[in-house]
Amino acid sequence: xxxxxxxxxVFMVLSNCISRKVAIVNILSPFRIPLNRVHPGYRTLxxxxxxGEPAEPSRLGTPSTGDKPIxxxxxxxxxxxxxxxxxxxxxxxxxxxxxxxxxxxxxxPSKRCHFLSxxxxxxxxxxxxxxxxxxPNGTKFAIQxxxxxxxxxxxxxxxxxxxxxxxxxxxxEALWEPSLxxxxxxxxxxxxxxxxxxxxxxxxxxxxxxxxQGLLDKPVFSFYLNRxxxxxxxxxxxxxxxxxxxxxxxxxxVPVTVPAFWQIHMEGVKxxxxxTVCAQGCAAILDTGTSLITGPSxxxxxxxxxxxxxxxxxxxxxxxxxxxxxxxxVSFLLGGVWFNLxxxxxxxxxxxxxxxxxxxxxxxxxxxxxxxxxxxxxxxFLGTYVSVFDRGHVNGSARVGLARARSxxxxxxxMNPRRRGSAADTLARRMxxxx
Length: 435
What we know:
Residues 1-27, 39-73, 410-416 and 418-435 have low confidence and may be disordered. The protein is mainly beta. The protein has two domains: 2-224, Beta Barrel (Cathepsin D, subunit A, domain 1); 245-429, Beta Barrel (Cathepsin D, subunit A, domain 1). The two termini are 29 Å apart. It has helices spanning 2-14, 179-183, 206-212, 297-306, 343-346, 379-382; strands spanning 31-34, 36-38, 49-50, 74-76, 81-88, 93-100, 106-109, 135-145, 148-161, 164-176, 189-192, 220-225, 235-239, 247-255, 258-259, 262-266, 268-271, 276-277, 282-286, 293-295, 310-311, 317-318, 330-334, 337-341, 347-352, 355-360, 362-364, 375-377, 385-390, 399-405, 418-419. The longest helix is centred in the first third of the chain and has 13 residues, at 2-14. It is 10% helix and 37% strand.
């Protein structure tokens, strides 16, 4: 009976969210977007699909921005998914969005949504009649998520993000959303930061629009996801650069191998000094819209067994909370550098209604060719390492930079990644207070 209750509880927890981040660059001004966190889950990675081609964007006026760095807070929930605030229209209608490196479109719920689309009634909705700068487009779009298809129409209006005001963008008004996932989500929509090749219908992604309008010199951005156990601060998205105070140098840059998702080559994964998976190298993507770390189910099963996990449901594994201090580190070899996660990093601790659960941050997800097989390094990984996404490096090739995030709980101290061939650091050196 207890086991059944735990399964039901975890299912309800996972249903609350969507399934499925400094090189000194020449920028006009770095724009800071503070983040919040939302609940864990996973997303099935699917290429975005839509109908038709959008019309050319109308002239919506001249965007403006201040000279000071832009700061918009990121919210957080259970340290595993993060979102921030944007505005659409004139005057701006405010929305909470997930800044998602695994997609390339911006969408929010529409006031014109289908009556039976439950998520629409629990979130902020865009009202075109309330915006003096709205321009109709009308092209249909659809985005396929693991839990169902989201569909709607494309529209044009002005984007406000931090101190950037009046940037014309094409975005989606969602008329139908998959009910279970989006109804109880802590965010309204999604702002994609992937490559243009992922954009539905050839729509110009928001980041590209800001660059084209001269608000950003180059398409570079970075994520600091604050995973400290206390405080509402979820971290920060910086458009146009990164904040060196958030990480421990140096940054390790890894080239992007497939410019659609932020896909890179991963050279190996090991558990402590024992199990090794991805031994011959494998593909991996860095995805801020995915909460966990996913990989081929056979390898993830072996990894979870090696860290003492036992299966629960839907590829999820439970961990005995009392064993967290003795669990081995899990290390990822990227660009010749071992990036280590301690149990405090990769175990998700949930306390609700007097029940405390500890879930593994690793989940099996088999991606068929041609996209797969691949690993997805989601927020469990990106919450431990600051990530710099650079689409416009000097030689024309995209790259991702990674460096250990500074912990606010430990006064800025952290564990540096180790060079290839060194043993993984022990958990004791990285244990943080379990508050």
